[in-house]
Prior knowledge:
The complex is a heterodimer. Chain A is mainly beta. Chain A is built from four helices and 31 strands.
Amino acid sequence: MKLAPLALAAALAAGAAAAQTAPPASPATPPAAAPGIDVTVSDDSDWQNQTIAIPAFATNADVATQTSAGSTAALGFSLASVITADLQNNGLFKPTGPGALPRPALVQIQTPDFGTWQGRGSDMLIQGFVRAGEDGQVTVGCYLYDVALKQQLAKAGWTVAPGEWRRAAHKCADLVYSRLSGENPFFDSKIAYIAETGPKDHRLKRLAIMDSDGANHVYLTTGQATALTPRYSPDYGSILYLSYYNGQPRIYIFDLASKTQRLLLTARNPLFAPRWSPDGKWVLYSMATAGNTDIYKVPAAGGGTAVKLTDSPGIDIGGSFSPDGSKIVFESDRSGSQQVYVMNADGSNQHRISFFGGRSATPEWSPRGDQIAFTHIAGNLRIAVMDPSGGSMRYLTDSWQDEAPTWAPNGRVIQFFRTIKNSGKTSVWQVDLTGRNERKLDTPVDGSDPAWGPLRP
Amino acid sequence: MKTTATLSIALAAGLALSACAKKAPQSLPPEPGSSISTEAPAANQGPVPGSQADFVAQMMGQDTIYFDTDRYNIDSADQQALAAQASWLAKYPAKRVTLEGHADERGTREYNLALGERRANAAKNALAALGVDPSRITTVSYGKERPVALGSDEASWAKNRRAVTVAID
């Protein structure tokens, strides 16, 4: 489905022509402080909580749509709700959703009643409109205002197919997030993960996908064969994962358009830990030979010759490319315990970077290149980050067993999975780089091994 | 043999019950094999000689060897168990086996897959040293995905760090 950006003025004008002028709300006392855009985003300082009002999006006419949200008015409410949820959990904003706010009329979308919003103590205001097209498509406009400055900061619009309406909300949240934080957007993205059900000794593990906020959940495999460790391809066309489909751990490429899969390669040896290169042209994998696991790379298209990258008598496994594709961070126990190493993409210059005591595992290079997320094991398993030379190590979580971090496309948020002691139940969690904003994703069943895909085009 | 089979089922049922009854079991499940009957099998109605059921019955728990945290070396108890396996395999030279390698839950998923494979291979190599043709042995690692002891404590983890030999029927 294509997401068509829109010339907003024309779209809104078409709707606004029919709208009535709404009476201005009575002015209220302005708040003592008039905050502007003054946000510091840094790794270890607390982000500020900017208050943002997100009233229901207006519509020119409340008519039926083919979206799961219902009529255009209901859709306008749902859009604002999705945006509110997106902005809620990253420590930057304190959003108030449409349930607690008056609904602006269409004509107010471009001329907000700033007095009302100032009276409610809102620093920022997100307004928008929704309009049903003749062809079933819906058009969504999104506007960001600074209430104190009484100024429009950003606007955009999209025409989407009915099944893709949530993407318009994520695009709007992304617009606001990046405009206010200076960071790259990340909400309009998807997650591949393993959906888990059943008791600890008979766990069913299925490949599944969902939107970055947990919506639009789809199972891709039945669970007859245990599925593990998925990775979305950079173009969202396919997913690499491990399956015991033929009784042995092998790596498959699941094609999302045809819903079919093929073996990555037909080696007779056990294969683990598949990874894409940033350009999607290479696949890293780990293969055991006579009990010794090493890391290889092979062209993703198939048919190419595999290149062996590591050759230590220990277990070398996993791997994550730097964003420019020039380096690979990976895990090895060649020193006696799991530690994190970096090498060039051709396997040269292998050197250890983790020296923290305990064990360090599952390194993942940030899409920004500035950090490596990993699992630190010292009794408990915790999510931590360090810089690519192994410095500035910081824990982001503190629980009994958190593992397998995956980065949001903007390198500012991490998902991972948490296992509960004794029950073995798993869940997917999200934490920001301050470590202060942690939340569980609302998956339909237990979940593990989240793998965050890139920002959608 | 019938006695043994019945006991195994009773043991399995008992494990399942205790796992359901308590969130955090105070008493640990018995050592694998320890509750399996040591009494002589009934003479006439045993499992088919050379079958997996026969192997399990004959091994009396020695179809499984155990490892220390992060280790894959074969200690003397393991060596004894593997010798018992090797002599059974010598009796049935056409028999092939799968060696399943496992890890406890206190490690990361992918590393544990590689570790389980390393353990299965260590057991395979030891069997080969005892005269078993390595071409009769295939290995598979389940990492931490298939625990037998369900607690989150040292005793359970010790039971889960294992390599299990399974005769292919």
